[in-house]
């Protein structure tokens, strides 16, 4: 089966890593591995395009180019990953209709609040048109199911749980020891790991929350180190905050390639990231796959990727007090930590395994194509 693939938010070759980009690349790779030909048909990034006349012109140019590419490719189905109010799919609905092939969405997002704001209203309606035009919508977030159900019948919506490829993230004791040695962290020093892009948004808010929480933790204990993996435009502000709140306790490791992150997960005792505004959070899955217990806020979709009291602890958002006390309690209870760590890889392998999820996606796409014939 030939699949025309499109990612309106971030094309597959986008230089800045993110959870969305990783998911899109994984879908493309696994569909090809399953024996299909999944080809990215357009690289047009539709994010906020309607705000300028230039954006509209680029959208029209992209529409013509994508139609020519699809016409030459002769796909059996069109699959778009992640259409939402900021980056609606304005190519797939038109081209799939012209070519007479099924139009399918993976992880569309829909919320009526965006039609009330003049800045987001056009994006909302363009995204709404895309969702309504779809033959089927797949979502990996339970929180999106109810919203999608407002404009699509249940038979046209399928939930596939979020996940990762377990073989990409496995605990490596020797690699973890090497990371500690590299940064001068002794084997018996409690090590808290966090990882994020330093953007001026909820990622930055989460790191600020974490540093404030760790400052509170400093009232209980003085023997911990926080290792921060990531970079971005807010790095200088974060370094100043770390120096003020946690002098000598925070090490900035810079951006770590994703394929090297298992070494850092293997070095730590806890993975802690508040996850403010996180719809899911790939880093939580990666940490658990490497047998690293998680501490995060009980917010958004994090409960879908962290099993409470089984692979980690989710705490209320109270300014950082609950997070600080939970970290302290876990570090004082090595048996509890060991139990949480042991459960993580099993949870990922058995319940959050993308290898199985994307095989099911491939089967469903074949079924949709057959029905449409």
Automatic annotation (TrEMBL):
Residue ranges annotated for the Glycosyl transferase family domain, each copy included: 184-345
Domain of life, source organism: Bacteria
CDD domains (UniProt xref): GT4_PimA-like
InterPro entries in the record: Glyco_trans_1, Glycosyltransferase_grp1
Keywords: Transferase
Range of residues in the leader sequence: none
GO molecular function: hexosyltransferase activity
Protein name according to UniProt: Glycosyl transferase
UniProt organism field: Desulforhabdus amnigena
């Amino acid at each position: 089966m030939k699949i025309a693939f499109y990612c309106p938010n971030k094309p597959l070759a986008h230089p800045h890593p993110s959870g969305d980009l990783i998911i899109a690349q994984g879908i493309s790779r696994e569909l090809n591995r399953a024996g299909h030909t999944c080809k990215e048909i357009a690289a047009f990034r539709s994010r906020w395009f309607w705000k300028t006349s230039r954006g509209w012109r680029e959208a029209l140019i992209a529409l013509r180019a994508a139609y020519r590419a699809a016409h030459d490719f002769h796909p059996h189905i069109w699959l778009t990953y992640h259409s939402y109010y900021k980056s609606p799919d304005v190519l797939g609905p038109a081209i799939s209709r012209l070519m007479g092939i099924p139009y399918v969405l993976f992880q569309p997002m829909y919320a009526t609040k965006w039609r009330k704001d003049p800045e987001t209203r056009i994006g909302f309606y363009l995204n709404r048109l895309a969702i309504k035009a779809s033959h089927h919508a797949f979502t990996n977030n339970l929180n999106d199911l109810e919203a999608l159900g407002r404009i699509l019948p249940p038979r046209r919506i399928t939930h596939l749980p979020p996940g990762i490829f377990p073989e990409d993230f496995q605990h490596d004791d020797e690699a973890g020891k090497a990371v500690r040695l590299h940064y001068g962290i002794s084997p018996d020093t409690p090590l808290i790991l966090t990882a994020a892009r330093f953007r001026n948004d909820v990622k930055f808010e989460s790191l600020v929350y974490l540093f404030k929480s760790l400052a509170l933790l400093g009232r209980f204990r003085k023997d911990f180190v926080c290792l921060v993996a990531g970079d971005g435009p807010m790095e200088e502000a974060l370094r100043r905050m770390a120096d003020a709140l946690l002098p000598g306790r925070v090490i900035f490791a810079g951006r770590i390639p994703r394929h090297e992150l298992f070494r850092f997960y293997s070095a730590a005792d806890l993975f802690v990231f508040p996850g403010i505004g996180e719809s899911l959070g790939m880093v939580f899955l990666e940490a658990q796959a490497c047998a690293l217990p998680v501490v995060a806020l009980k917010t958004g979709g994090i409960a879908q990727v962290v099993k409470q009291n089984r692979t980690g602890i989710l705490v209320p958002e109270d300014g950082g007090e609950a997070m600080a006390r939970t970290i302290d309690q876990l570090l004082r209870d090595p048996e509890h930590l060991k139990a949480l760590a042991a459960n993580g890889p099993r949870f990922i392998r058995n319940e959050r395994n993308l290898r199985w999820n994307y095989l099911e996606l491939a089967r469903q796409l074949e079924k949709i194509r057959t029905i449409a014939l």
